[in-house]
Design goal:
alpha+beta; six-stranded mixed beta sheet; 12 strands; 21% strand
Length: 424
């Protein structure tokens, strides 16, 4: 095992969770859509070496239960190539992404898949990794490393001893333990609570303007994350059982990087529960209620005792605590948000036109969503049980919620003087 650090400590709980739920895929990742000729195997091997150099644990084979790693693997073992139907466009690309993701990694803990042929002078690189190795921010970090961009995250220092016990720290521990121990009545989106999907999940993406979402957030006095979650609450509303007994509880990953870990690779997230106000009839009411519901996220970013539960529990219990927090009786879905590069990136001189996020689906869950940012575009990514009713409509409903926010909070644009004269 590589030297013990904060990333290793946080990632262990995900490896334990995966070992206890072998039929659930804990892979996250992204798809870079690149304008340019298909790269050679030698070029891709060099790209893989850059990624492996950025984060040493990525050099290892897949972990076997009860062991730390399976030893080093070579670049060819991380690479797969898939030729798509000629001129199949986005339909062929998205179908291939679903097919690749339906085959979990076995020999290695991360892999790259070259997808090409669907469009002239365009290819896609699908990167996926076990969530115990990386979180969304780390995926962005190794993407920067692969394209030789500045600002590549560094390894973090070994974890410091936990701070001394204070009254505030004891209270935080009691709150965290009570949050796991007390019963929770959450709404299940699937036909049977806790039953794993029988078929591989569907994956859907929809893009929208990132400046548009930021303008809505500014006008409404909320955050971009609030706009994302409130729109999700409205999009889920038509699909809820009637009458809906319980609440829609989203587990929202919170970045816990601080100090020596502020620019580190690994897994540095903990889940924060947020009740989505799907029951409220008006979009503006849902946005206001979401802003109140996410107060614990804003305070958690500044709370030095936010991770007291995992700092106190023996490491061997971390996986059990995570499994309880993600149990379908306690959590309806996972909803994450990954900020990305603000400007377009290039790979070997060719433009990366889009970065599509890939989300995991916890055991017994029927829906996970992710909002990612890249070069002025926000992508909503959905991974869902294909048996969910009207799941194909969820992205469209989410966009409709943004339309409702825009109509409510942002004033209509005034025509320019030149435009007004031209209209006369």
């Amino acid at each position: 095992m590589h030297e013990h650090d904060a990333a290793t400590a946080a990632g262990e709980r995900w490896f334990d969770y995966a070992a206890a739920h072998p039929h659930a895929s804990l892979e996250i990742g992204g798809v870079a859509v690149v304008a340019g000729p298909t790269p050679s195997s030698a070029e891709l091997h060099a790209l893989i070496d850059l990624i492996r150099a950025a984060h040493p644990p990525l050099r290892d084979r897949a972990r076997v239960r009860g062991t730390s790693s399976g030893g080093p693997a070579g670049p060819p073992e991380h690479l797969q190539e898939v030729a798509l139907p000629a001129h199949g466009g986005d339909v062929a690309l998205h179908t291939a992404i679903e097919r690749v993701c339906a085959q979990p990694l076995t020999d290695v803990s991360w892999g790259m898949t070259l997808l090409h042929g669907h469009r002239d002078n365009e290819f896609a690189l699908l990167l996926r990794a076990h969530h115990g190795l990386l979180d969304g921010m780390s995926l962005i970090g190794i993407t920067l490393a692969a394209v030789r961009e500045p600002g590549v995250p560094q390894r973090c220092a070994p974890p410091a001893p936990p701070p001394p016990w204070t009254t505030a720290r004891v209270r935080a521990l009691v709150r965290a333990a009570a949050g796991l121990a007390l019963p929770a009545r959450t709404i299940s989106l699937g036909p049977t609570r806790g039953q794993a999907p029988a078929n591989p999940p569907r994956r859907l993406w929809v893009p929208t303007s990132l400046p548009r979402m930021k303008a809505i957030a500014t006008a409404a006095g909320t955050s971009l994350n609030d706009v994302y979650l409130a729109a999700l609450a409205g999009a889920l509303r038509p699909s809820l059982p009637d009458p809906a007994a319980g609440t829609v509880r989203a587990m929202v990953p919170l970045n816990t990087r601080r100090g020596s870990t502020s620019a580190a690779l690994g897994n540095f997230h903990r889940g924060v529960p947020v009740i989505l106000p799907c029951h409220l009839p008006a979009a503006s009411e849902r946005l206001a209620a979401t802003h109140l519901a996410t107060a614990n996220i804003r305070t958690g970013r500044r709370d030095p005792d936010a991770d007291v539960l995992f700092e106190t529990l023996p490491t061997r219990w971390h996986g059990r605590a995570l499994a309880r927090a993600l149990h379908p009786r306690r959590t309806t879905l996972v909803a994450t948000h990954v900020p990305g590069p603000a400007r377009p990136l290039e790979l070997h001189g060719h433009s990366i036109d889009a970065l599509l996020p890939l989300m995991f689906l916890p055991a017994g869950h029927h829906l996970s969503v992710c909002l990612s940012e890249y070069a002025g575009t926000a992508h909503l990514a959905v991974v869902a049980d294909p048996s969910l009713p009207d799941i194909d409509e969820l992205p469209t409903r989410w966009l409709a919620e943004l339309d409702a926010f825009e109509a409510r909070f942002t004033p209509p644009r005034q025509p320019s003087v030149a435009g007004a004269r031209a209209a006369r």
